[in-house]
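Title: Request for sanity check on Enoyl-CoA hydratase prediction

Description:
We are preparing a figure and want to confirm that the structure record we downloaded matches what your pipeline produces today. Could someone re-run it with the sequence below and paste the raw structure tokens into this thread? We only need the token string, no images.
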Amino acid sequence: MSARSEAYGVSHLTPVLTNPQRQHSPSPELPISMATSHFDEIELDWSPRERIIWSFMKPRATPAFTPTLLRELIGLRRMVEENLQEPVEAERGRYFVFGSRVPRIFNFGGDLRLFSEKIRNGDREGLRQYAYQCVEAVHSNLGEGLPIVSIALVQGDALGGGFEAALSFDVIIAERSAKFALPEILFNLFPGMGAYTLLTRRLDAMRAEKMILSGQTYSAQDLHDMGLVDVVAEDGEGVQAVERYIAATSRTYEARRALFAVRKRVAGPALRELQDVTDIWVDTAMRLREEDLRRMAHLMAAQKRRLRNQAAA
């Protein structure tokens, strides 16, 4: 057991699933706040009995935090806030689950194509605006005051910003084959959208810096042993693991939700702190050398090859 607790696409009534192992029973109808929401790269569903808002990234291109996906994530946060104002209590979410529809990939992290373009063009302000969007999305998950438990469902690799995003949820449930890494050191950069802030609060500065500077890949079990991942599920059973977690902890829901709120109040970073770190990240990124940008391009090419190979399989 870990040291922590035992965790935009068009709204659909019956979602189209890219991986049949991820299916769960869709509700016959969605709460008004969800039914009237429209996203192009996020898929929504609702489990009425447990009052779970399910959301899955469904990117049209690279499974990374592109400006389009970031805008929709901020819109998703607004949708959750609206849902919690539903006049009928039974239609207000108690749990918010965030995952990915891309097989074996949670999220590759930052938009490397955008990074390279902004750096080569000397567009410091454009890169800063993108980075601020990233930390706004991370901070929205850490926001105090929402009476809901957030769960990251990681059914594939969470790299860079994908790892940072998962860390911003109350609970992390990961399938056994999922991998986690902060690869930015490969191209002479550091993960600037929350990794240091979140890892030092959950571990300590020494271990956080080791993870960042090594670029090491960690398994779900590795992070469970560190206390970062709450539940390790067998491959293909992530959704069921979420449902089991909710069933097992439902009796103490209010206490757990309150404890997560206390954790955010005591240890949660202010948006200004995240932005200050991001400013350092932008300054560092703008000083990258041509050889660093070539390494970034090699990583982009590797990501594209993986997607092509998966599509052909």
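Thanks, this matches our download. DSSP finds twelve helices and ten strands in the chain.
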